[in-house]
Specification:
Elements (H helix, E strand, L loop, with lengths): L4 H13 L7 H14 L2 H9 L1 H10 L11
Helix pairs in contact: 1-2, 1-3
Length: 71
């Protein structure tokens, strides 16, 4: 299975948010909201699509660690 897409979503969001210096907490909040709204929907959809197989795997291993199963 591919690298977990939630990391890709966070990476894209983080890159956009910190593109220019942040002036304060309200600026950070506004920037996160704006950048989230502009994220590519296909990237978000891919992250969502990976949740069900990952959750099924967690159940299969009785709540144990699963990362090694996806590399």
């Amino acid at each position: 299975m591919c690298e977990f897409r939630a990391n890709a979503v966070w990476g894209a969001l983080q890159q956009d948010v910190y593109r220019v210096p942040i002036v304060g907490l309200e600026d950070l909040k506004d920037r996160v909201r704006t950048c989230w709204a502009s994220l590519d929907q296909q990237l978000i959809n891919k992250a969502i699509d990976q949740w069900r197989p990952r959750l099924k795997t967690v159940v299969k291993v009785h709540g144990g660690h699963i990362e090694q199963l996806f590399t």
